[in-house]
Amino acid sequence: MSIRQIPLIIGGEKVISKSEQWLDVLNPATQEVVAKVPMATLEEVDAAIESAEQAFKTWSKTSITKRMRIMLKYQQLLEANTVEIAKLITLEHGKTLPDAEGEVGRALEAVENACAITRLQLGDMANNAATGVDVYTLNKPLGVGAGITAFNFPVMLPAFMFPAAIACGNTFVLKPSEQDPSSTMLMVELALQAGVPAGVLNVVHGGPDVVNRIIEHDAVKAVSFIGSTGVGTHVYNHASKHGKRAQCMMGAKNHMVIMPDANKDRAINDLLGSAFGAAGQRCMANPVTILVGEARSWLPEIAERAKTMVIDAGTNRAADLGPVVSPQAKQRIIKLLDSGVEQGANLLVDGRNVVVPGYENGNFVGPTMFSGVTTDMDIYTQEIFGPALCVLEVETLDEAIAIINANPNGNGTSIFTSSGYVARKYENDIDVGQIGINVPIPVPVAFFSFTGSRASKLGDLGPNGKQVTQFWTQTKSVTARWFEPDHIEGEKVHTTISL
């Protein structure tokens, strides 16, 4: 059986790369090669950007109503192809089919936000701001935008970028993760079917050389990135150095606080789902929980429920978690879990040596849970990005808040409580950009902006919501005065700046 070759998309056409370097795309449950993805040549990257640059000349002048209608059609096509897209996510990423379908649903929310572009891109106006003078703002497209995405959400993360960017009148070059590109390619193909013109949306694949070429190209005006802190910091600094607008959503170490007055069953189930779902490969997962006061007595029950979670290939709809994305990811996760034991944490649940019958070659790591964790341990300070849960225990809410605020990351945090006073105190005192109250993964619906903070984010504007149009447009201010056709000013020269 021939192996699929993942194409580039340049100028509205699928293009088979001329690159001599192709990487295997593996099914993480079996290690079977399911496709090959090229590391695009720099000439191909240039061709994609130049195609976008040419398309911008006409797309930027296309009416906002027409752009909205294309987004509406795109939303319909994505929804109709949810099952097929989810199968590709599971095949190459490994997450369970229900989780993959949920990812498509979150991508749909972002596209639906882009469908509101006729309202989101409105400017402001002050009539008669001075005598006979009107002042107004125009939110104009920037030019060519670029997006660089991580493997963990191959559909949702691109949806946080290109739909809004092109709805605002920009053109786009997307560089998805090379680990699971097929679902991304299908969503791009559906965008073209929806009516996105040739050259408006392009796709290239590659590593650091391709990323740097995108950033450095004169035609690229803005770069959006979602992924690891190391790469995101490079992207932001390199883009800023070259005069580009940049936003980088990066690493995390999220905490869930459980108060003793919380609904016990709901809190435990939501904790385990947020810690171990998608095998922990979410930047908004909760890999740390802080049990406050009497909630510390729940620790044995949390561990026992963790042991009952089902580990299997993602095609098993009864599975709670599938494999991690690659052997390298598994190796890194196991090394960090081993360090937890070596540094003195109590290993309550051990998923390091799990084997799934029929999938003996899969990259499986089972739910792993530590108590007695201190904030100087590697399992606490580093983002494990696997199915691991660190438990800390404190006496008071103030102690929990102090621990979280001392952590450099600020992507998300949650608190489970039945007290409105406690919840309000938490949201006011915590220094984290996204807060969940009895919600384990506090990613807001897409008509609100993604607002991670501190070391989890570089750039002042996040994806989605109102901020997304601010990022993908430049504001032009116009000050205008119109005179009567027979107006006579006289001979006096005005040298003041007053109006």
TrEMBL record:
Superkingdom to which the source organism belongs: Bacteria
Keywords (A to Z) from UniProt: Oxidoreductase
Ranges for domain Aldehyde dehydrogenase: 18-478
Top-level class of the enzyme under EC nomenclature: oxidoreductase
Any one Gene Ontology molecular-function term assigned to this protein's record: oxidoreductase activity
Enzyme Commission code: 1.2.1.-
Family the entry assigns: Belongs to the aldehyde dehydrogenase family.
Protein name per its UniProtKB record: CoA-acylating methylmalonate-semialdehyde dehydrogenase
